[in-house]
Design brief:
Porin, two-stranded antiparallel sheet, 11-stranded antiparallel beta sheet, disordered C terminus, mainly beta
Length: 270
């Protein structure tokens, strides 16, 4: 199976699989988020804690140059641990992230409001299918071009390894998928015209496998700024929420069909 990065001498080098739909010289935010989660988890406090919130600030593009990390624990308590991570290239910080662990415990008693949710995952397949989409009431499909409409969108990921020769952790898979929140919610009849500047992933529990789905839940826009929110799922049901803020990038709007053709050509060349 393809991997998004190679580990070389304490640094990480992106492979062709990590290319961004915004520019061929940049690394996709999905892959960046997954790799940041991997680094943050080097400070994992143990099985009694849940990685409850993961926030990434994407204030500079990550390009096809070696990647280094700086990370530290900034709060280490009995019920809370907070980890800060900085991604560096060419001596400058390009992206930063914060991971908050919370200690798991008993559920609070009583009746509490819950929203109605309807999400049906695609049927299991014996073959690896890295990404599938659902547009409105249509069936699940891998056809990006079918999403050039104003329908509500869902996506289903079967996440490839972040680093060659390793298996992903549940947090890495959720972090990768969460970065598609802005794309999912801002994808319309003219393509994707907003690029996200951040993403926040909140989890009540980790995903149970490499398969993670998102369903668009909210979109608010004004003055070229878009706020997007999605619910995360695995085959057992909902597990968290992701929120992303984005800015209009209409001069370089992503054509999903053209990007899919580039990805397909890369896959066939391997």
């Amino acid at each position: 199976m393809a991997a998004f990065f190679e580990s070389v001498g304490g640094q990480y080098v992106a492979t062709e699989w990590a290319v961004s739909p915004w520019a061929p010289s940049q690394v996709a935010g999905t892959a960046v988020c997954g790799l940041l989660a991997r680094e943050a988890e080097t400070h994992d406090p143990g099985p009694l804690f849940v990685p409850a919130r993961f926030t990434v600030d994407l204030f500079r593009p990550v390009v096809y140059e070696p990647i280094r990390f700086r990370s530290e624990v900034v709060r280490d308590g009995r019920r809370v641990r907070v980890v800060d991570v900085a991604l560096e290239q060419a001596g400058e910080v390009r992206v930063r992230a914060t991971l908050m662990y919370l200690a798991a415990g008993e559920q609070s008693p009583g009746q509490v409001w819950q929203p109605d949710r309807q999400f049906a995952a695609p049927p299991p397949s014996a073959e690896w299918n890295p990404i599938q989409f659902k547009f409105g009431e249509q069936d699940w499909t891998g056809d990006f071009a079918a999403g050039l409409n104003g329908d509500r969108k869902s996506v289903w990921h079967d996440v490839a390894p972040m680093v060659e020769g390793e298996s992903n952790s549940p947090l890495q898979m959720a972090a990768y998928a969460a970065d598609t929140t802005s794309m999912l919610c801002n994808w319309g009849s003219a393509g994707i015209g907003y690029i996200n500047c951040d993403v926040t992933l909140t989890l009540s529990r980790p995903p149970e496998s490499s398969e993670v789905g998102l369903q668009a839940q909210e979109r608010i826009t004004a003055g070229g700024i878009a706020i997007a929110a999605a619910t995360l799922y695995d085959r057992s049901g909902p597990l968290g929420v992701s929120v992303a803020s984005g800015i209009s990038n209409t001069r370089r709007a992503v054509d999903p069909a053209a990007f899919a053709a580039e990805v397909s050509a890369t896959a066939q060349a391997q």
